[in-house]
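Incident log, structure service

09:12 report received: a user says their structure output differs between two submissions of the same chain.
09:20 pulled the input from the user's history:
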Amino acid sequence: MSDTATTPRPVPLADQDSRLYWEAANRGTLLVQRCNACGKTQFYFRSLCHHCQSENLGTEPSKGLGSVASFSIVYRPPMNCFKPDLPYVVALVDVDEGFRFMTNIVNCDPASVHIGQRVRVLFQRIDGSEQMLPKMEPL
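09:34 re-ran on a clean worker, output below:
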């Protein structure tokens, strides 16, 4: 048996703060937190607003559109289970609703990814899991 087959892909573990986010991802929705006190968005999900420390947080669906802020092409995977994906792109994406998150850019030649590139969200199931992950693809 190969190392790839014996190393399962990591699956996010939902906690009290992130449960709504992961449930929305499984429905194909990119959910974002918005502070009801100061109006700012934040990502990742937390129990307090990182701008004003308010506990008065809500959620809203994102349109899932954004721009690549930074990226790296991975040629050596951190775990053997990612070898079939090589090479792949890890990127920071500035989402139009005002938050930044780390994701993969998929459905394109990794060499074609560039800073400022417009992207949109899509969801892919983690192998061997029911959990969906948000990823981005070029518009």
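09:41 both user submissions now match this output. Likely a transient worker issue. Closing.
09:42 reviewer note: Residues 13 and 97 are 25 Å apart (CA to CA). The chain has one domain: 12-138.
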